[in-house]
Amino acid sequence: MNLGQYHLDLSSPCIMAVLNITPDSFSDGGRFFAQNGQLDIPLVMTRVEALLAGGANIIDVGGESTRPNATPVSVSEELSRVIPIVEAINARFDVPVSVDTSAPEVIAAAARAGAAMINDVRALQCPGALEAVAIAGLPVCLMHMSGEPRMMQNNPCYRDVVQEVETFLLARVNACVAAGITPENILLDPGFGFGKTLEHNLTLFRSLSELRALGFPLLVGVSRKSMIGAILDKPVDQRMVGSVALAMLAAQQGVGILRVHDVAATADVLKIMRAVEERKDG
Ligand code: 7PJ
User: Fold this and answer.
1) How far apart are the CA of 155 and the centre of ligand 1, in A?
2) Residue 47 a catalytic site member
3) Is residue 16 in some structural domain?
4) Domains in the chain, number
């Protein structure tokens, strides 16, 4: 898949590193903000350097927290968090930058700032978002979410979760194509934890190969999420092993991009998997 000037071979999973530029994200909120509320760009660049050293193939920059009960941010606030970071990464490092956003203004500004991909948890449903991505000509990840972050975990309910997620994602693919986005630029994501119970998440996880059969590369984000907490009964700072285990199981089902916090640990697991696969006949 082409991401701007970069080419990524998704036949073996790539690592997308999470870079939250938010004061309130559940796992790393606030770490890049000085006491006066100013964004500390050099500190962010130090983090990016560490993510690249760990083996990140894409950096996913997000300025809106989408955790359950998160408060919405204004477009101007999101722009002021995200755009300087996209510019700074592009100036210093040779890595594709993805921008995690739903706002058409942020999509357009990110494209101008050199972003290589758009990652939208609302699957381009905000007015103007489809058109913004079509004009930018960038790849886009369409994620399934039931409801909005503030309410999504209040009694999520499906008749057939896999069927409903597939139907939703295919409808969004059709909307993208109608807006002029090329199918080669589309990735799909079932949206683990976004309006889903543990059972819904596990059912979807077991169906990743089926989703893959829709013909689009898959992106999966399970890193440190509450489904791991629920299985292991562990707080967010003790979910790395669980996250890496799920990353490996996702990789075995043909996922193209793994969106993770623990980059180096995930890279180790992928290296082990590739070594076993390459040598199994030899
Ligand atoms: C996801 C995401 C995900 C995609 C977040 C978190 C919450 N984008 N953004 N997929 N999750 N595509 O990192 O736990 O699962 S924010």
Assistant:
1) 20
2) no
3) yes
4) 1
- Please spell the DSSP secondary structure of 178-196, one letter per residue: HTT--GGGEEEE--TTSS-
Q: Is the CB of 25 under 6 A from ligand 1?
A: no
Best residue among 66, 69, 120, 240 to mutate for probing ligand 1's pocket (most ligand atoms within 8 Å of CB) is 66
Select which of 259, 271, 279, 280 is catalytic: 259
Residue 214 inside a domain? The answer is yes
* CATH code, domain with 221: 3.20.20.20
Residue range(s) defining the domain that contains residue 208: 11-281
Catalytic site includes residue 225: yes
The span from the CA of 81 to the CA of 131, in Å, is: 23
How does pLDDT run along the chain (282 residues), one tens digit per residue?
A: 999 899 999 999 999 999 999 887 666 767 899 888 889 999 999 999 999 999 999 999 999 988 777 778 999 999 999 999 999 999 999 999 999 999 999 999 999 999 999 999 999 999 999 999 999 999 999 999 998 887 878 888 999 999 999 999 999 999 999 999 999 999 999 999 999 999 999 999 999 999 999 999 999 999 999 999 999 999 999 999 999 999 999 999 999 999 999 999 999 999 999 999 887 665
Report if residue 272 sits inside a domain: yes
Radius of gyration of the chain (CA): 18
Contacts of 92 (CB under 8 A, 6+ apart): 45, 48
